[in-house]
Specification:
elongated, 4-stranded antiparallel sheet, single chain, 26 helices, alpha+beta
Length: about 800
């Protein structure tokens, strides 16, 4: 799907570029013919509006029938393409060792070693095993290994027996074994013994048979994981107050599912609020029922068609694409506002519907086309990102923008012809406050163009300097959540007591069957674990390490009369092989979550706290170098993976993709502007008013200490496609009047006073559309909405002052030739 869609988008924009390049060569005569063509389209539609409308509605209804297949995905696998190296490594790991993400159920307890508590904990553990769907394993003190030796026998049994020892000495021995066991500290119980954990892991994949009898694996989707989590919560509720008064769920999976739930809720809430607010704004603008109903019908059809395309192409709702409905509602209404503004003005001066429609289509058609292309170009720049949520936003945002344009020029004319529309008395344009403001902007920009341009250039240069010297990157999903969110509080509490909740996984492939039994390798691995646990860094630490060396040392101690001095790696490979074989006979599940069944690959788990993803890159780079230095000659390959590693790869890719997107968006839109004005110099200069607000917002972001995370990175490419819209309408109107009169000051005044109202309205609608995101529970979404709305407001100011001043300086007064 990705390749096809990207190819379509690339081909579309290649076609547009070629068409516009030819268009710029032929100059004004073709522009006139295209504008006339839009008018003829309006006339053709007016002859049979009902037939046209029913045809469009039928097509969109067919697309909408696929909405039932739309799904949500906020999993870590959903960030990257299936063939990406990071995800391929992660899948290989899960196929061998299972899922590393987990539900961690924390239970506050005064004393574990009470028979009544052990009975209740066992019942809780057993109910989890019996009732949680898609379950892979449940680990707790109930089934933790208790390894000891009896003469020459290795005995492995559950840590907590059904009946605790009644002999105080035996009970103290069991307590000492438990609390002194490094394998379970900071994993199944806290150092103070007041918090114990029950770790629930789900299956890594779901397997099904296709029509040919072949077994196909699938990721567990959000609804599978939520089904498991709901079962866990239900069981917890039954045992709360019996097992303990305080039982909470932490871990990466609950946080991931919480984000998915918020995204799903935001998807519905944003859409509803956007529809209501945009309808209110349209009513205030036009003061007509038709001015509300016709644009709303048009843009809702566009949103439905776009979201239907997501369902058809199996692109799920993710963190970024959750904003699409409200985003498209706000963005796509702009074309309708511009068309209706001109239509109502001509209709109210006495023209009939068809005449007013044809005039409005001729006046706005080409400008709407350019604004839609530039908006789509800004979004389409994301479609080449390796991050699927970012790519999907770019792909379907661009599709939605172009669908909105097509529906505006095809569906809206049908509605105009069919809706009963009354004439309104036109007031003197100079009586309104808005017109006075527009005249003031025109007068100031034409009277003081040099001062305005100098101030704009200083702001532009200063913003670039501040952004480039103070900006920093970060990606910390935990900081997005409300501080009082139970899942967040549970995770923070768990990390306070246990030190970690995230897993970084390492696979050591020795290159030969039985290679794990090598004493030199295991000794090196054991030394590595002790070294890593001692690392103290300002940004991260490794709270615990887990590997097969723990089992080897336990078994060696047990087979040497339970002598603590034998808690070490034997020097004999045959002895190691025998010990692991005995463990395999008794507890194969424990063993084969740490090594593969060929004894060729060993797993090392590093438990770390949730940290800013920017630090994962340093961890991965330093860890890879360190491990290769220590055991490179004893292994064929060393692979670092797991949730934390994938997040690190995702963040690194995000920085690269964003830089690429900014470059592509700025380049494509600059070309569009050059072709629009038929001048390289004017085209590039006209980009300054569009780029200035983006640079100012990025500078503000840097000065206030906000990091450039996944959402803030989107602001630039989204905003450049939006901020250029007002600029396109201004430049298009200016060139039209300037070509007729040869007077730049008059052209500026006429353009601002005729198109300025529509520019202001569309900017208000866009700002409101993005301010809707302040209703999200996620703080990053709130910041994204506020900053993008601010960028749009600054862009309007730049269009009203900076752009006219530039046009004033770059265009001289001349006497146009008489036709």
């Amino acid at each position: 799907m990705d390749v096809c869609v990207k190819a379509i988008i690339f081909g579309w924009f290649s076609f547009i570029y070629t068409a516009l390049n030819s268009f710029s060569m032929i100059k004004n005569s073709l522009k006139t013919r295209i504008e006339t063509g839009f008018g003829r389209l309006g006339y053709a539609i007016s002859r049979h509006p009902l037939r046209w409308l029913l045809g469009y509605v039928l097509i969109i209804a067919l697309l909408a029938s696929q909405l039932v297949h739309l799904r949500t995905d906020t999993s870590i696998e959903g960030f990257l393409a299936k063939d990406s190296p990071a995800l391929t490594k992660y899948d290989e790991f899960k196929a061998t060792f299972g899922r590393d993400e987990m539900f961690i159920i924390d239970i506050e307890v005064d004393d574990v070693f009470q028979q009544d508590f052990v009975d209740k904990l066992r019942a809780f553990h057993q109910q989890l095993e019996d009732e949680v769907p898609y379950l892979a394993s449940v680990d707790s003190l109930i089934n933790a290994r208790h390894t000891w030796g009896d003469e020459d026998s290795l005995i492995i049994e559950d840590l907590l027996p059904y009946e605790l020892p009644t002999d105080p000495v035996e009970l103290d021995t069991l307590k000492s074994y438990t609390y002194d066991n490094p394998n379970y500290q900071r994993f199944l119980f806290s150092p103070d013994g007041k918090l114990i954990s029950v770790v629930v892991k789900l299956e890594a994949f779901l397997y099904e048979t296709d029509s040919n009898g072949e077994v196909i694996s699938h990721y567990l989707e959000d609804h599978h994981q939520r089904e498991a989590m709901n079962a866990i919560y239900r069981i917890m509720d039954q045992h709360r107050g019996v097992l303990s008064d305080t039982i909470t769920v932490a871990g990466s999976l609950p946080v991931s599912l919480l984000l998915a739930e918020i995204v799903k809720d935001d998807f519905a809430v944003f859409s509803s609020i956007a529809i209501i607010l945009i309808a209110l704004v349209l009513f205030v603008i036009f003061r007509r029922a038709s001015g509300v109903l016709m644009p709303m019908v048009t843009i809702i059809l566009g949103v439905v068609a776009t979201i239907s395309m997501m369902a058809i192409l199996d692109s799920p709702i993710q963190m970024t694409t959750s904003i699409l409905p409200s985003f498209l509602l706000a963005v796509c209404v702009g074309d309708s506002i511009h068309l209706l503004s001109i239509f109502y003005r001509q209709y109210d001066i006495g023209k009939n519907k068809v005449q007013a429609l044809v005039g409005a289509m001729e006046h706005t058609g080409l400008a709407m086309f350019f604004t839609s292309i530039t908006t789509a170009a800004g979004l389409a720049s994301f479609s080449f990102s390796e991050l699927l949520p970012v790519s999907a936003l770019g792909t379907f945002g661009a599709i939605g923008s172009m669908l909105a344009f097509l529906l505006t020029i095809f569906v809206l004319p049908c509605l105009i012809c069919l809706f009963p529309i009354r004439h309104k008395t036109i007031r003197s344009s100079k009586q309104s406050r808005l017109q006075k403001v527009l005249y003031w902007c025109a007068n100031v920009s034409t009277a003081h163009p040099k001062r305005i341009v100098i101030i704009g250039l200083i702001l532009f240069a200063g913003s670039i300097y501040v952004a480039s010297t103070h900006m920093y990157f970060g990606h910390a999903p935990l900081t997005w959540l409300p501080k009082n969110e139970p899942s967040l509080q549970a995770l923070l509490k768990h990390e306070k007591h246990m030190g970690a909740s995230m897993a970084l996984e390492v696979m050591f492939d020795t290159g030969k069957e039985g290679g794990v039994n090598n004493p030199a390798f295991l000794s090196k691995l054991d030394a590595i674990m002790r070294t890593l646990e001692s690392i103290e860094d300002d940004n991260y630490n490794i709270a615990k390490t887990i590997s097969v060396t723990d089992i080897v040392k336990e078994s060696n101690r047990a087979l040497h009369g339970n002598d603590q001095a034998a808690y070490s790696i034997p020097n004999d490979a045959k002895l190691i092989s025998q010990e692991l074989f005995l463990v395999e006979l008794d507890e194969p599940d424990d063993l084969f979550t740490l090594i593969d069944r060929k004894y060729q690959t060993a797993r090392l788990t590093l438990l770390i706290p949730w940290i800013d993803a920017i630090h994962y890159t340093d961890i991965l780079t330093n860890l890879q170098s360190y491990l290769e230095e220590q055991v490179g000659d004893l292994t064929e390959s060393i692979t670092i993976t797991g949730v934390a590693a994938v997040l690190g790869s995702t963040f690194a890719e995000m920085i690269y993709s964003t830089a690429q997107s900014y470059t592509v968006a700025a380049g494509v839109i600059s070309i569009m502007m050059i072709l629009l004005v038929s001048s390289v110099k004017l085209g590039l200069l006209s980009m300054l008013p569009s780029l200035l607000p983006i640079c100012m917002v990025l500078a503000l972001l840097s000065l206030t200490g906000y990091p450039m995370d996944m959402f803030n990175m989107l602001i630039g490419s989204i905003a450049i496609g939006l901020t250029v819209d007002d600029n396109v309408h201004f430049i298009h109107g200016f060139k039209r009047v300037y070509g007729q009169t040869g007077n730049p000051a008059y052209a500026i005044e006429q353009t601002l006073t005729s198109s300025g109202r529509a520019m202001l309205v569309t900017s208000i609608v866009l700002s409101i559309g993005f301010l809707i995101y302040t209703q999200s529970e996620l703080t990053n979404m709130i910041g994204f909405g506020i900053l993008t709305a601010l960028c749009i407001c600054l862009a309007l100011m730049a269009t009203f002052l900076f752009a006219p001043a530039l046009m004033m300086l770059c265009n001289k007064t001349y006497q146009p030739a008489k036709s």
